[in-house]
């Protein structure tokens, strides 16, 4: 049966991989939107889109420029299309950048998310799946993080906007019976990743023999989650009826659900640096710095809920994931390959 899905932030890292996976099913028609902002390389974003559009196997994808913080353009998009499912991945990302440009986070993550909720409400969308973040756990120290833990103490504006998204979704689920599922992503990495993320920054510094700022000496734990595993989780959630996903939702919002999407196996950041050193056969030029404002010491996802719902468990080991990323990185930058971790 044919269905039409909207993927927001489709030129972004996760959005690109999700769209690629969705269009493999010829019964899906996917419309992807993005505002192609200059937070990082627009060229990288355009190349992601071109990779999807030029795949001769599929003709069930189209791209439209759209800024979600502009309500009318979003309303027009929903009027023109009969979407069944909305996968909302557009957001202003980055914990540290939220200290520099807070306005961008309010426009995209608060105003933009409100516009998405309003469009989904008025057009009777069957399921809104949206990106939250592991950063909402803030300074929680009880590991692994579970969806039931309190997330009332975010320590960055980025985290606060994602926590706000969850509260806003709760309200719309309660008031309008809008099925919403928020996904708390844990340190997603892989090919076509963002240049501001740890894995990309490490590879860039080590391959170019430039200094690498390592906060807290790399003595932090991150639950690095491979992007194909994340995309597979989202695909499986799209296949489930919302009633099944929300069967055990909270009392006052029976159509509301939050899920951790992580690897369930945190890695020491310094060990990741060492693996990348081995690949390039170069030592990192490390400059040790204090932990940054807004950063947390450890992230570690309890993923029992997503497993019970979908039967999914991450398949990609950290070694395989890093190798896949570095092979892409080397190819993208025309570097020689060592193919060894």
TrEMBL record:
This is NAD-dependent epimerase/dehydratase family protein. Residues 6-243 form the NAD-dependent epimerase/dehydratase domain. Keywords: NAD.
